[in-house]
Amino acid sequence: MRLNKLHLGNFRNYRELDLTFEKNITIFLGENAQGKTNLLESIYVLAMTRSHRTNNEQELIAWDQEESYLAGELEKHGSTLPLEITLTKKGRKTKVNHIEQKKLSSYVGQMNVILFAPEDLSLVKGSPQVRRKFLDMEIGQIDPIYLYNLVQYQRVLKQRNQYLKQIATKKSDPLYLEVLDEQLIDFGSKVLLARQDFIQRLEYWANRLHQKISQGKETLTLTYLSSAFGEETTLEGITQSFGEALKKARDKELFRMSTQVGPHRDDVAFAINERDVQTYGSQGQQRTTALSVKLAEIDLMKEETGEYPILLLDDVMSELDDSRQLHLLETIEGKVQTFLTTTTLEHVKNKMTVEPAIYYVTQGVLQPELQG
């Protein structure tokens, strides 16, 4: 899978931009606040329909314009696929092969991307919310059914939380709460099963990479932590355990007026040689774990979709030491189309075995480096 062409209109600080990508690695070089990250963000938005930097889509539209337009030509399974997104202050419109897509799950997954930014190094030591978002974004790309179940779960969760707040001031309807419970368990159990399966497969690839980086001295394990299903591994078992967990939590939920168990409260644990990395790991071990997990997605997506995803590296090279930089480049070179931002070529070009395409970025203007 590769992105051959990118067109931007009124996106961030780019009024009009057309790029054609012929090489496997493209480097956007320039000082901070010039628009390098905006380019990676545009590719991410083209794939995911939303930004990784903001929840306010109006920030993506040039400040004096009414709408923003993104388009790309994707090469996939031997054929080309046009993708388009129009962002307005009223919402977004997406098209695949010039045909409008009404459902998010019909669009997301057409182009698979993996974003690796400095903040992703906090995947291990950050909050559980960071890890849940990571799971949702990555699984959603390769499993449209997961995305549907997640959206439905979040809808029912919102309704249920609102009703739990009402119970404190109004007479309750046990039947209505029972209906909400059934829907929450139905959609939530499917989300849980998909997450558990994803973590198991991700662990296989992440451990292989981690052992290579640590020269065989460390074994990495990933564990999905849920208050809803414990050790259950089947949909039937998870559904039953989720229901039992909700019943046990009923008094606490009525007191706190919010849903206390379910995918929205779960977490992922990382261990090196059976020792908790989040609590006891060194900063180096935490960074190696984060790097192994992010790079493991490349092989996992290849296994799932039949093609390698597109990799977006946002100024992450300067955050890694020489050893980790080399392992990252060894993992991607020759097989993964990569877009990389940096303020200097010092950490990058001399370590590459392939010739990259380089663009100098200055205040939203791109100047390609002359080859030869």
Automatic annotation (TrEMBL):
* Location within or outside the cell: Cytoplasm
Where does the record place the RecF/RecN/SMC N-terminal domain? 3-364
Q: Which GO terms describe its cellular component?
A: cytoplasm
In alphabetical order, the GO MF annotations are: ATP binding; single-stranded DNA binding
Matching InterPro entries: DNA-binding_RecF, DNA-binding_RecF_CS, P-loop_NTPase, RecF/RecN/SMC_N, RecF_2
Give binding positions for ATP.
Answer: 30-37
**Keyword DNA-binding applies:** yes
Determine the domain of life of the protein's source. Answer: Bacteria
List the keywords (alphabetical): ATP-binding, Cytoplasm, DNA damage, DNA repair, DNA replication, DNA-binding, Nucleotide-binding, SOS response
**Function as written in the Swiss-Prot or TrEMBL entry:** The RecF protein is involved in DNA metabolism; it is required for DNA replication and normal SOS inducibility. RecF binds preferentially to single-stranded, linear DNA. It also seems to bind ATP.
Similarity field: Belongs to the RecF family.
Please report the name of this protein according to its UniProt entry. DNA replication and repair protein RecF
Question: Native species of this protein?
Answer: Enterococcus asini ATCC 700915
Q: What's the encoding gene here?
A: recF
